[in-house]
Automatic annotation (TrEMBL):
Annotated source species: Sphingomonas rustica
Domain RES: 80-209
Protein name as annotated: RES family NAD+ phosphorylase
Pfam families referenced in this protein's UniProt entry, alphabetically: RES
Source superkingdom: Bacteria
InterPro entries attached to this UniProt entry: RES_dom
């Protein structure tokens, strides 16, 4: 499938990804444990954390040797690939393998994240939530499938039931060719550009930025405010 598409060599010095700040915090039990208990807590986390299990012996379609070690943001990079959602695949990854989704502008990320959270709240029937998201900057270089001039590609269909199966097939073909990822026009933010990194090693120079608070107060349109880091 990737053979019929545009392959581009690209250098992206700064992209942005949003992750829930809950994933940046230490366990709430840490302050209650003494030095001896902390070792036990670490053992418990190792037995239940998808990221740590993936680093030790792989997880799903992610082999342990694919993950990265000793580089800035390794925890976040590995988590992005280890924490796949079996019942909710994404556009370019399935149930057994995650991906690193980012964009060239934080406004694009906010639109993408906001769309999915709003859809979740719609299922509950209650538009009441406050969620903080932190910026994670990263750089990329290498070869990518480039869909930026192909907005009608099947993988970009706005209905996940149609777009996601095509996107997963495209991602499988791109990985088989060793391509670092997929560049594509944002489906939820017209004019925005997104990237899906398909291999952990493709994500470089991770650094944390500011925090954005998304607030739903009875309306499907969230209010967004920046919390400077």
């Amino acid at each position: 499938m990737a053979d019929a598409l545009t392959i581009t060599r690209e250098a992206l010095p700064r992209t942005v990804r949003l992750v829930s700040t809950a994933r940046l915090r230490e366990t709430v039990l840490l302050g209650l444990a003494d030095a001896a208990d902390q070792a036990a807590l670490a053992e418990i986390e190792g037995a239940t954390s998808s990221r740590l299990m993936a680093q030790a012996r792989g997880s799903g379609d992610v082999a342990s040797h694919e993950l990265v070690y000793g580089v800035p943001g390794a925890v976040f990079i590995n988590a992005a690939f280890a924490y796949a959602r079996p019942r909710a695949p994404n556009r370019f990854n399935g149930a057994d393998r995650g991906a690193w989704y980012a964009a060239l502008a934080v406004e694009t990320c906010l639109a993408e994240v906001g769309f999915h959270l709003t859809a979740f709240l719609a299922d509950t029937g209650v538009y009441e939530a406050v969620v903080d998201y932190a910026e994670l900057f990263a750089s990329f270089a290498g070869e990518f499938v480039d869909l930026r001039d192909d907005p009608e590609h099947a993988s970009l269909h706005p209905d996940p039931r149609l777009g996601y199966p095509a996107g997963n097939a495209l991602a499988d073909a791109a990985r088989a060719r060793g391509l670092n990822g997929i560049l594509y026009p944002s489906v939820r933010a017209p004019g925005g550009t997104c990237i899906a990194a398909l291999f952990p090693h493709a994500v470089q120079s991770v650094a944390q930025g500011d925090v954005h608070r998304m607030t739903w107060a009875g309306s499907p349109e969230p209010q967004v405010s920046r919390i400077v880091g």
